Write a sequence for this structure.
């Protein structure tokens, strides 16, 4: 069931939610949290679809905040709120409210969202792209117990990780970190089978992939060994090699789906390590609402501490340097004659 509301208020939206639930015969609220999505029109469909799929595991009230930037000065002064209420099969297992904020209201999104939060339930805010530099200090982020960003959507993911480290507040997390959960689990399990100490490691993956950096930083932080970050054609994270005193442990995934685990003295094993979609990543993050101390320690380790990082190229000589040198040599020859 869908209800469109134009030039509305938070109070009318709440009334529409109650009326819609009664109309479909489900007046009771069985949702466990409120998920606030801060996005734009371009990415709203994909974000809402992922959130709807994740709500099958975590029934929730999904509030999508879409800020419509006005072009003319007059439009920017006029504050208007349009909304779309979805309940029943149109909203997964919970209910969805799509808010479109116009004019001055864009700068006061928290005042619109606050009355729509479920009472006595956790709040999670997710920025699929264009996350603020400090999510905890953002007006919407301040309402939440958990704040989810995605460094992969940034123009410079490596620099984005540094921003996340500088502004980290307990409750922050990033989907680039969530993507490597199966890798971390598999590598930890392989080390449980090896009593030998790890002396070094190498993480191989695409160039602008923050998950590769996070995995390398996690290994360096936990194992206290040098970790080299190398670049491959992908897709995504392709291989991890850990040198131990008993031989090398290799987890290789060249196709983005099936990996091979190789260990000294054991036959190679096939491991399912497919690249997961956003709905699966979001569902995993919604399973825990407490601070992730391991993520905090990893992101604060710093990309610059990894070996094999790109170094700035030396400055090239100026275009007129060679002619100037030739003129200087010619002048010396003329003076000696």
């Amino acid at each position: 069931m869908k209800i469109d509301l134009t030039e509305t208020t938070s109070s009318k939206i709440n009334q529409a939610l109650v009326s819609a639930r009664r109309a479909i015969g489900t007046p009771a609220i069985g949702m466990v949290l409120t998920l606030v999505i801060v996005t734009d029109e371009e990415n709203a469909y994909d974000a809402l679809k992922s959130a709807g799929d994740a709500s099958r595991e975590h029934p929730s009230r999904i509030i999508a905040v879409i800020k419509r930037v006005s072009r003319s000065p007059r439009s920017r002064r006029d504050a208007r709120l349009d909304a779309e209420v979805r309940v029943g099969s149109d909203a997964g297992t919970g209910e969805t409210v799509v808010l479109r904020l116009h004019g001055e209201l864009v700068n006061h999104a928290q005042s619109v969202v606050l009355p729509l939060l479920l009472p006595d339930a956790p709040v999670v805010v997710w920025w699929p792209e264009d996350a603020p530099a400090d999510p905890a200090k953002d007006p919407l982020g301040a309402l939440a117990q958990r704040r989810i960003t995605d460094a992969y959507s940034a123009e410079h993911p490596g620099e984005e990780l540094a921003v996340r480290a500088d502004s980290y507040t307990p409750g922050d997390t990033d989907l680039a970190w969530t993507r490597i959960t199966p890798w971390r689990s598999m590598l930890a399990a392989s080390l449980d089978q090896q009593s030998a100490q790890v002396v070094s490691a190498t993480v191989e993956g695409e160039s602008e992939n923050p998950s590769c950096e996070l995995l390398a930083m996690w290994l360096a932080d936990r194992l206290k060994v040098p970790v080299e970050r190398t670049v491959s054609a992908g897709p995504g994270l392709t291989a991890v090699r850990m040198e131990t005193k008993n031989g090398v442990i290799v987890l290789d995934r060249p196709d983005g789906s099936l990996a091979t685990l190789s260990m000294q003295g054991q036959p190679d094993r096939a491991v399912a390590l497919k690249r997961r979609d956003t709905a699966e990543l979001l569902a995993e993050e919604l399973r825990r609402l407490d601070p992730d101390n391991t993520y905090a320690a990893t992101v604060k380790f710093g990309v610059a501490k990894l070996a094999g990082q790109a170094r700035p190229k030396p400055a090239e000589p100026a275009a007129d340097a060679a002619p100037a040198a030739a003129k200087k040599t010619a002048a010396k020859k003329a003076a000696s004659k």
Summary: The chain has a mean pLDDT of 85. The radius of gyration is 26 Å. The longest helix spans residues 321-336.
